[in-house]
Amino acid sequence: MLAMDGGTPVRAEPLPSPLTAAGRTIGVEEEQAVLRVLRSGMLSGVWGTEVAALTREFAELIGTAHAVACSSGTAALHLAVAAVDPAPGEEIIVPPISDMGTVFPVIAQNAVPVFADVDPATGCLDPAAVQRAITPRTRAIIAVHLFGKPAPVHELRRIADGAGVLLIEDCAQAYLAPVGDRLVGSVGHIGCFSLQQYKHITAGDGGLVTTDDPALARSMRLFADKGWPRDTGERTYLSFALNYRMTELVAAVARAQLRKLPEVVHRRREGARRLADLLTDSPGPALPTDTGDHVYWYLPLLLEGLDAAGLRRYASALTAEGVPSQAGYLARPLYAEPAVRDSAAYGGTGFPTRGVGDYSDGLCPVAEALIERRLVVIPWNENFSDADVDDIATAIGRVHQEVAP
């Protein structure tokens, strides 16, 4: 009997979570980094050394010529869109499954988000759908590496180059994910990363942007610092920009976390591999296709034959068994959110999307099917023990037997 129906749950103790110390890799290295900054008396990244060191180290890790630091993953995407510099009403292609931080920077820069459908197995942008969405007004494509699975960025880069537009990679969920002989964040024109609490590594919040283009790097540095070219020594403001600066405290913690990142990714992959082995010989949901490229921010389960109520029951049942789970990842596709569909910006004028963008139901049927009937996600963690993974496998088996058709 399922726990939600009165049975005994598989797990009584909570799994490691990014909201607790048990689910993070924060230790003495981060403590020493914070004390180093505090004792220096310099907490500002403008005059300190930690932010500069972090950007050098991160660019080297990802394999790009430049990295720019900022205050959040959403800020990183805003820097990228600002560097694209769309004119009002121009278009940027985005996926319907992501955090809204992928879309809001588009609207903030007075551009129109155009939603392209996704691959039914990964939830990442479908290149064919992207190709169909390109118009003479398109200025950029934002590809999200969803749940840690790389989007087909080499193909998307070819499409972008053929259309004369920029490719932005949203890598917030996919640190160190390989794409051929490169890493995500180095194939597109710009890569965007997040240091938010839930990500592979964290400094509480913070963002990093990568690029090989010196002009794009300079544009993004200016946008993060009110258009102020501090390298010239002159207090002048070259362009409209905001203050998205990273502090020395954030950078120091991020540098300590960065050194732990390869092991974090390795442990996440090992746990997911163990789960796949445990579920190989029993009926169950489809697990991600992993060709050595998945880095498992979340673990997605793909189901067939359920309606919306059945999908919610499946996720609720897993949660009751002690495995926190979420049906659909999102409540609805991003284009169905009131902030987009009702054009809730700019004083009620509806600018820049009202009467322009198509945000109706049925716009992206593959994404809608994933969210409404096919997808359940489990937050994954590098600190899961073998016993934790065994419990997760047991819970999935129990729930699937009772809930799946």
TrEMBL record:
- Ribonucleoprotein listed as a keyword: no
Can you provide one Gene Ontology molecular function annotated for this UniProt record? pyridoxal phosphate binding
Residues of the active site: 199 (proton acceptor)
Q: Which Pfam families does the record associate with it?
A: DegT_DnrJ_EryC1
Cofactor(s) for this protein? pyridoxal 5'-phosphate
Q: Where is this region: Disordered?
A: 1-20
List N6-(pyridoxal phosphate)lysine occurrences by residue: 199
Sorted UniProt keywords: Aminotransferase, Pyridoxal phosphate, Transferase
Looking up InterPro entries in the UniProt record yields: DegT/StrS_aminotransferase, PyrdxlP-dep_Trfase, PyrdxlP-dep_Trfase_major, PyrdxlP-dep_Trfase_small
TM spans (from-to):
none
Keyword Acyltransferase tagged: no
The Gene Ontology biological process terms listed for this entry are: polysaccharide biosynthetic process
- PANTHER family in UniProt: DTDP-4-AMINO-4,6-DIDEOXYGALACTOSE TRANSAMINASE (PTHR30244:SF34), TRANSAMINASE (PTHR30244)
Family per similarity comment: Belongs to the DegT/DnrJ/EryC1 family.
Q: What is this protein called?
A: DegT/DnrJ/EryC1/StrS family aminotransferase
Organism in which the protein naturally occurs: Ruania alkalisoli
Organismal lineage: Bacteria, Bacillati, Actinomycetota, Actinomycetes, Micrococcales
